[in-house]
Amino acid sequence: MGRVTASLSDLPLRDDLRGLTPYGAPQAPLAVALNVNENTHPVPDEVASDILDDIAVALRDVNRYPDREFTTLREGFADYLGHGVDASQIWAGNGSNEVLQHILQAFAGPGRTVFGFAPTYSMYPLLSQGTGARWVAGERQPDYTLTAEDAVAQVIAADPDVIMLCTPNNPTGTPLGLDVIEAVYDAARGVVVVDEAYQEFAPRDAASALTLLEGRPRLAVSRTMSKAFAFAGARVGYLAADPVFIDALRLVRLPYHLSALTQAAAVAALRNAPAMLGMVDEIVEQRDRITATLEALGYEPHESWSNFVLFGGVADPQATFQALYERGVLVRDVGIANHLRVTAGTEAETTAFLDALASIGSAS
Q1: SS (H, E, C) 314-360
Q2: What is the DSSP string of 90-111?
Q3: In the chain, what percentage of residues exceed pLDDT 90?
Q4: Are strands 219-224 and 237-241 parallel, antiparallel or unpaired?
Q5: Buried-most residue among 110, 190, 221, 252 (CB within 10 A)?
């Protein structure tokens, strides 16, 4: 008797999840994959050895549950962030997406709204939907910037429970001024989350929203180890906020949600932060090289403070994506008309992308 496979529509799925598709960036075995904003540089050998030593020690006690409060890791993040942040203000999870999910589980949920300025990180609406909240998309200027006045007007009109501010913004790379963040916070009744996943790629004198934490208990600043730390496969994200905000996240986290091995690897990586971050300058150099060459080819790259470049002037994004794919280069079509996005990789990867794009021909 042949096996009958049910379809998703046959299952008693929540009504608000019907018709949705899971998140999925294209994955393909190409030599040059520049589509998901990874740090394409490997972890330095000497750092990898140090991390492995710490994991080996943690493995001896892996029969026991890990430190539920991941105390040593929180202390490491506090030391790394500076700005007077201490361990009581730190939270962490399995990637920044889990950290953001904790926030939405605690402060959003059914009957509540999550607001952000589109285009922005594609996981925000998916995380909102997954926690039963309603995603509301605001608008940006044509160059993807935001003014304090415009941002406040939209926040007041939407009156959301949670506001997501991504800076530098994904997928555009656009920075957000602290004046906008302050104005949004003052206008909002709900929590404000500043997602600084790409902050390490911003100019060195660029101020972080960490400077705004004092006296703002509804503000959280999220970071990740996936980008600048080249730790995407380890899945470690974190945030800084008022200690009371952290207490709220404890209400929704799963017990022992960070494994002992994850904690050990992250603590060792933070201990080697200077070496781990040594590749950031090279990535920024390649990002700026991409921008300059795209302009020379007739495309329209947007200002980026991140490790990627969004560029317009693409007459047929799908055709250009496919032509690059056939040349062994994977980029990202983020759904913005006449645009594609490319991650700044190593010098060799950047050269491969630029050569492939040039071989297709200049922008029309």
Answers
A1: CCCHHHHHHHHHHCCEECECCCCCCCEEEECCCHHHHHHHHHHHHHH
A2: EEEESSHHHHHHHHHHHH--TT
A3: 90
A4: antiparallel
A5: 221
